[in-house]
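Input/output pair, single chain:
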Amino acid sequence: MKKVLQGFIFWTIAIAFILLMTTIGQALANLITMDLVMTVVYIALGYSFIYILKN
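Output:
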């Protein structure tokens, strides 16, 4: 009986973890758009240009 209870608790936690990761992934997929990615790329490009000129 103890093994059955431990197995049930383990699988409940495992399924909850998978559902939580899926929810976080969906939230990030909705949050991160191509415009955001391009903005970050342009900022990184500008920063790297300044860094190269500085050195």
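Residues 11 and 49 are 51 Å apart (CA to CA). The two ends are 68 Å apart (CA to CA).
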